[in-house]
Amino acid sequence: MVRLAGVLRTFVPLFDRVLVERLAAETKTKGGIMIPEKSLGKVLHATVVSTGPGSRTSDGTVVPCSVVAGDKVLLPEYGGTKVEMDDKEYFIFRDGDILGKFTS
Amino acid sequence: MVRLAGVLRTFVPLFDRVLVERLAAETKTKGGIMIPEKSLGKVLHATVVSTGPGSRTSDGTVVPCSVVAGDKVLLPEYGGTKVEMDDKEYFIFRDGDILGKFTS
Amino acid sequence: MVRLAGVLRTFVPLFDRVLVERLAAETKTKGGIMIPEKSLGKVLHATVVSTGPGSRTSDGTVVPCSVVAGDKVLLPEYGGTKVEMDDKEYFIFRDGDILGKFTS
Amino acid sequence: MVRLAGVLRTFVPLFDRVLVERLAAETKTKGGIMIPEKSLGKVLHATVVSTGPGSRTSDGTVVPCSVVAGDKVLLPEYGGTKVEMDDKEYFIFRDGDILGKFTS
Amino acid sequence: MVRLAGVLRTFVPLFDRVLVERLAAETKTKGGIMIPEKSLGKVLHATVVSTGPGSRTSDGTVVPCSVVAGDKVLLPEYGGTKVEMDDKEYFIFRDGDILGKFTS
Amino acid sequence: MVRLAGVLRTFVPLFDRVLVERLAAETKTKGGIMIPEKSLGKVLHATVVSTGPGSRTSDGTVVPCSVVAGDKVLLPEYGGTKVEMDDKEYFIFRDGDILGKFTS
Amino acid sequence: MVRLAGVLRTFVPLFDRVLVERLAAETKTKGGIMIPEKSLGKVLHATVVSTGPGSRTSDGTVVPCSVVAGDKVLLPEYGGTKVEMDDKEYFIFRDGDILGKFTS
Question: pTM (2 decimals)?
Answer without folding.
Answer: 0.85
